[in-house]
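Why run this: before we spend reagent on co-expression, it is cheaper to look at a predicted model of the complex and decide which construct boundaries make sense. The entries below are exactly what would go into the expression plan.
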Amino acid sequence: MAATETTTTDYDVIIIGAGVAGIYQLYKLKDSGLSVRVLEAGSNVGGTWYWNRYPLARFDSESYSYGYFFSREVLDEWEWSEHFAGQPETERYLNFVVDKFGLRDDFQFNTRVTSAVFDEDRGRWVLTAGDGATCTARYVISATGLLSAPFFPDIPGRESFKGEAHHTGLWPKEPVSFAGKKVAMIGTGASAVQLLPGIVDDVGSITVYQRTPNWCAPLNNGLITPEEQEEIRAGYEELERLCRNTFAGFAHADGTRGTFEDTKEQRWAFYESLWTKRGFAKLFSNYNDILVDPRANAEFCEYLAHKIRERVTDPATAEKLIPTDHGYGMKRPPMESGYYEAYNRPNCTLVDLHETPIERITETGIVTSAGEEQFDLIIWATGFDAVTGALTRMGVEGRGGERLADFWADGPRTYLGVSIPRFPNFAFVGGPHFPFANVPRGVDPQVDFVTDLVVHAARNGYTFEPDDEAEEAWTQHVLESSAPFLVADTSWFRGANIPGKADRFMLYTGGLVVYTNRLNDVTANGYEGFTLRDAGAPATATAG
Ligand code: NA7
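The model came back. Tokens follow.
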């Protein structure tokens, strides 16, 4: 399916996407005896860590909790340099894994799938790439990512800007020069919060256009010392146990106390201790009611607002940076390293779009209700059509020509977050109803489950497809599980960042342990909820 290839190529399994999930999925199927191909739009592996190469892009999960757990050798051989590795290091890591296991030849790069249509007569998926070339597969596994379909807001004149413009999720490989430039950044989500401190010293000036402020708390990154390296190595089994047994698969124990079991003084002392902890301890090791009790949440927000006021010199700017429409964790909370201090620099200006909305983009700059500002470079830190976007944009059509985009028009419906009725032999990992979790830890049980399902089906010559009732019950369970949680009206968790997208919570908040157990039970019970139809000759699978 490369641009020069003219023949159709048939595989047992096609995996779409060469990110963290796609690589693991390939690894798992490598010795199955099935012919497997990975199609990837980029020119190399990495997924998120290939596309998001903006300055200071990095993990918000501890490196050692994000890396693969499937190989002791990888754990022993790879040494992370920072507690939260930057994009270049993660990209190197993923390439290291691919080469170590001899996976590289199974990837086909520069191949963006633009349609995937199920041919009912042949029982095969026909995939077409951007260059028109096609290939077919009996089984398709989409590993296209939760945050991989970049979103540009429909602001009049966007295309007319004649200066440089980059989206954080499509950042160029060539170094971007900031020296002396007048830069605009639109958006203040997790990407913008990482990026701003990385460029504020270099730019001539930067104007940040903020619609909604976020609750940001310190990442507390640092180099891993040789002693820590030893501790991490010695503690891998315990780390894995922790990640596999906590609510969201991070290297942080779940909180065990309620906010109001402590006095205010005790609470603030506890918040101070959280403040100095790494990463998402602020969320997951917090009081255990922070995500479900608005009063508990407001207590922590009061503490965070105090911190912002302490750090931002100009009181008016500090107030603009304090969210008033949502509490901590009700949107994905960014982790920061010097974000608030960036606003203390004389070359950094914050524009509150609630006060002065953007009206249009011109050839030379941005017009708000307060007038025009000229820029050399506009950074679009405006996020992604999250969770469903990569799948609904891919032209997927199931039985009877049913379009996936239509099937999910009112919000995603799935069985177990990996499959859907009317789309036989089609599975996805890292899509809707993905467990609310540290991404690789949520990917692990999904890939394990899908591997077993696909190999079992291939070996027996089955077509697999979930039943309507199973999909309905699971989707209902997903929605019920999310009901107790406080979620901002504007969160991408519920599709709210995309105009016109259905307002429906898209992740599974029943907990990673519950999710993993459920997948294991379904496997043990002979794939209950799926219909496995005899489809003729088995593929040549040797395992499962
Ligand atoms: P996010 O978190 O979705 O942030 C996007 C930002 O862009 C956010 O501040 C939006 O404001 C802003 N935005 C979107 N549309 C507009 C318009 N029309 N005008 C002005 N500002 C706009 O994306 P990120 O890339 O930062 O992070 C995505 C995820 O990647 C993150 O959650 C991590 O999991 C990693 P809004 O808040 O909608 O008012």
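The radius of gyration is 23 Å. The chain has 18 helices and 22 strands. Bring this page to Monday's planning discussion.
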